[in-house]
Amino acid sequence: MKKFLLLLLVLSVGFQGALMAQTRTVTGKVTGADDGIGIPRANITVKGTTRGVPSDLDGNFTIEVAANETLVFSFVGYISKEVLVGNQTTINVALEPDYAELEEVVVVGYGSQEKKEITSSVVALDAKEFNKGNVNDPAQLLQGKVPGLSIYNKGSDPNSGATIRLRGISTVGANVQPLVVIDGVIGASLDNVDPNDIESVNVLKDGSAAAIYGSRGSAGVILVTTKSGERGGKGLSASYNGYAAVDDVFRFQSVMTPDEYIAAGGNDLGSRTIWQEEVTRTAVSHVHNIAISGGSENTTFRLSTNFRNIQGVLKKSGFDQINARANVDHYALNDKLNIKFNLSMTNREQDFSFNEALRYAALFNPTAPIYTDASQSEFFQAILFDNFNPVAIIEQNTNIGQRKNLNFNTQVSYDLTDNLTWSANYAQQYSTSTNGAFYPSNSLFRGFNRIGLANRRTDESKFTLFETYGTFVKDFDNSSLTVSAGYSFQEEQFTGFGLEAGNFPSDDIGFNIISASGNIVGDLANASIFSYESPENRILAFFGRVNFNLNNGIFFNASVRREGSTKLGADNQWGTFPAVGVGADLLQYVDLAAFSQLKIRAGYGVTGSLPGPSGLAQDLYSYATTGGGTVSFVRAGNPDLKWEEKAEINLGLDFGLLGGKLNGSLDVYTRDINDFILERTVDPAVYGTNLRYENAGKLNTKGIELALNHTGFGSGGFNWSPGIVLSSYKTTLEEFVIDENMIANLGAPGQNETNLVRIAVGEQIGQIWGPVFSGNVDAEGRPIMVDLNDDGQLLTEQGSALAADGDFQEIGNGIPDVELGWTNQLTYGNWDMNLFFRAAFGHSLVNTFRAFYEPIDPGAINSYNRTKTDLQIEDLTVAQFSSLYVEKADFFRLDNATVGYNFDMANNDMFSNLRLYLSVQNAFVITNYTGVDPDPVLQDRGAVDNGGAPGNPNVLAPGIDRRYNYFTSRTFTFGLNIGF
Q1: What angle do CA 300, 304, 309 make, to 5 degrees?
Q2: Distance separating alpha carbons of residues 768 and 765, to the nearest angstrom
Q3: Which of 362, 614, 647, 824 is the most buried (most CB within 10 A)?
Q4: How far apart are CA 154 and CA 135, in angstroms?
């Protein structure tokens, strides 16, 4: 019997092998079951292999296949179909439309809508569309992917967040970045969600989409949905995603070599030190994500843990982080009741290092040694103004911190009837940061004059959210209606404490025993102590929305939010934020054979913006212990202080061509931002003091955005799917407290009276303003400027910048004319490749390194190295700001290139998927900018000299490439994705 079974097995294997060897030519046509029209570029593949062909433009195909093989027919928007070949030589297949996919649901504020019904400007991205590689900030997932969304992280500082702008400037106050909503929690922190845990992101760009969020939606809204378990009783599944990354400095500041420095007259101290290399390193990082999920018919869950050990290219910069997230989703009472619970915790240990070391590495004498002795116990220091050994800055001093975030939310929804659902959401978020720095008594950089210096500060915040709303849905014969209405309560509170003191008995104490400071023991006047607590800032709101669909061709949306805030004046705490939108599917009414989709949209919406600080509407007093105790009236309250308000009109067109292969959207918009909340100088005779916060000013922004995506070109198993996004905008200052002003100081040494940016009523934001360099130098080494008004005299000193006869003009603009993102997804068999290019054109940057350090001053060259570029002017020895130091910073960058291989796990009992990939970020950049990074600078934090700290961001002063910026890096990443 055993021999007989063995014989049957051998014969069976042989027969199957013979069948495999006997291939035949199979032809056929792929059509849509709903209309019988051929589907172009449908995918026909042999099941379990990477072999396949696409159909032609009429849906026809030809393929070589064996009789025992199965063909899989698939196309976007249709349900895939499998057919066993057998003895067939002709196979015609009609694919059924996948209505679940065609009727894509998009998350919007307080609910979701079918994509076809959207009348506002909304972009939805899922995980497969995110940027790949060493991504530590969730905002980087979206960089260059959404038209109108600008995300820039100048340099590659791992401890610095990105600057985010949606459609340019939304306010001149605090609320300049889009509102983030994570799993329904308004204002949740992106710092508390790991990029690996994000399932999708929806961006609400225009006012009609964001108005439902009222005062916090003025800068747009980013809706984040995290990953969750899958319902259906499929049991447990697990995944591991990990990678290792290597970073190197992409571009150093261009400075003189030691030999060039000596030849230019520099003081030769006998060494040859490349300082920028001494303070940087090859940074090695590794990231690990482990997730477990599962689900039954009634309950699903997902648990994940993320470990990140991230190094920056600046020595001693980076962080260690652990993040844990739990999602539980439960259904009960015949699915009428749904309860969701989300919990996330993050702990990050940070080493900030000192960005100043990068500045002084470009400046310090390249012939100086690092140490004064062979034992390397004492650092060499040049006792000169603004000149510190950059290695000593890093090695002698400490600058560390810890950040903890915790948030949770519980959402409950219940179907009261078949048409009415009630929902509620309660959430809390806690954040704590503790930072400390210590400078020993031998640190010339800081601490030397204080016999050691230490500082510590702690900041805490608490946010509470409660929202409840009802949704009524009703379908009629040829229409449908959705009505939502609800209530929102938000409360936030901030507290903090800080202390700085010097005069320590030993450098070994550090900031953890700051009580040993002599300043505290007996010299309290030299200690700095502060503490603060905000009031419990509250927002109360009532909101409602109506969506109406007529015959699947006309779509109407309207919403209103009535909101009050304790931050505003007693007479103006409440505001109303309405929105309305309408859309029409033209193909329902006009037969246009060239289009597979053609929808027009129009929307209008009003959003608001709140001030950052509390108490601006109340009087402010200061207290001092001098003179037996004094009280000073600092700032007058304003009971009429009200919202900043943004009103926006958006017109959009969604279209599809080439049988749905090419899809795109076009949006144009205009918006007005009114009533900036500004601190103004007022008449003391009226208000009792000279300062008061008031509403004043108006901005107008006009822009255009385009997105194009193609489902794919190719044949023989190869497919290329490109996509491109373009955006452009201009902002004009229409009203302001003064008609014309100069802002953004260049800074010390020597140019701290030079302002770089002009703002003027009736003109565009972003004007870099200064004299024009003629290209010539006088006998004393001074730059000769152009007589712009031909009056025979040169007025180019800073005080003449706005004079009627001054020789100044716009010499650049910090806002790009065009921003571009170009995605290329390529697949061949089990291989995939993604090439993502990013570009910006039309913006300029003030290269402050050149403005300070490029002229070769015969006195300074003895001690300071100089910046060296092809733009350097021979015989120029005097540093004076002009057009010479303003450079066009257009760039085209290969931002991310990723190659991956997906192993076939169809017959593997252990793994559900296995993928290896290699990624390079910032692979190359094409630019004429001579600085480190040509990315636009959309705001300015002021000149920061030794001992100072960056100020509040000024969005009216873009385009200044400051000397404290972190160096950009190129990153290579090797990663592994495993599913169990």
Answers
A1: 170
A2: 9
A3: 362
A4: 15
What is the DSSP secondary structure assignment for residue 800, as one 8-state letter? G
Task: Summarize pLDDT for 501-554 with one digit per residue, the tens.
Answer: 988 888 887 888 888 888 887 677 788 888 888 888 999 999 999 999 998 899
Q: What is the 3 state secondary structure string of 237-296?
A: EEEEEEEEEEEEECCCCCECCHHHHHHCCCCCCCCCCCHHHHCECCEEEEEEEEEEEEEC
Architecture of domain 101-226: Beta Complex (2.170)
Name the strand (E) or helix (H) holding 2. Answer: helix 2-21
Report the distance separating Cα 383 and Cα 213, nearest Å: 56
Q: How confident is the model at residue 608 (pLDDT cuts 50, 70, 90)?
A: confident
Mean pLDDT of the chain: 88
Q: For the chain, give every residue range classified as CATH 2.60.40.1120.
A: 20-98
Residue 968 gets which letter from DSSP? P
For residue 579 the two structure tokens come to 């929105």
Q: SS3 of 529, please?
A: strand
List where CATH 2.170.130.10 sits in the chain. Answer: 101-226
CA dist 344 and 740 (Å) reads 48
Does residue 257 carry a pLDDT above 90?
A: yes
Average pLDDT over residues 616-628: 79
| 677-681 and 691-695 strand pairing | antiparallel
More confident residue, 781 or 161: 781
Can you tell me which residue has the tokens 């179909």?
81
* Bond preceding residue 958 cis, omega within 30 of 0: no
User: Helices marked H in 377-513 — which ranges?
Assistant: 390-396
Give the pair of three-digit tokens for residue 82.
């499998």
3-class DSSP string for 775-796: EEECCCCCEEECCCCCCCCCCC
Span between the terminal Cα atoms of the chain, in Å: 40
Are the beta carbons of 719 and 710 closer than 8 angstroms? Answer: no
3 state SS for 416-455: CCCCEEEEEEEEEEEEEEEEEEEECCCCCCCCCCCCCEEE
pTM of the shown model:
0.85
Average of per-residue pLDDT across 274-281 = 96
Cα separation of 820 and 144, whole Å? 7
pLDDT score for 223: 92
Distance from C-alpha of 383 to C-alpha of 361, rounded to nearest angstrom: 16
CB proximity list for 362: less than 8 A, separation 6 or greater = 252, 253, 255, 275, 276, 849, 853, 865, 867
Tell me the mean pLDDT in the region 20-40: 80
**Residue 624, H or E segment:** strand 620-624
**Does residue 314 contact residue 966 with C-beta atoms inside 8 Å?**
yes
Residue with tokens 């104490």: 509
Written as six digits, the tokens of 376 are: 């390397």
pLDDT in tens, 907-942: 777 888 899 999 999 999 999 999 999 999 999 988
**What single-letter DSSP state applies at residue 102?**
H
3-state class of 959 per DSSP?
A: coil
3-state secondary structure of 842: coil
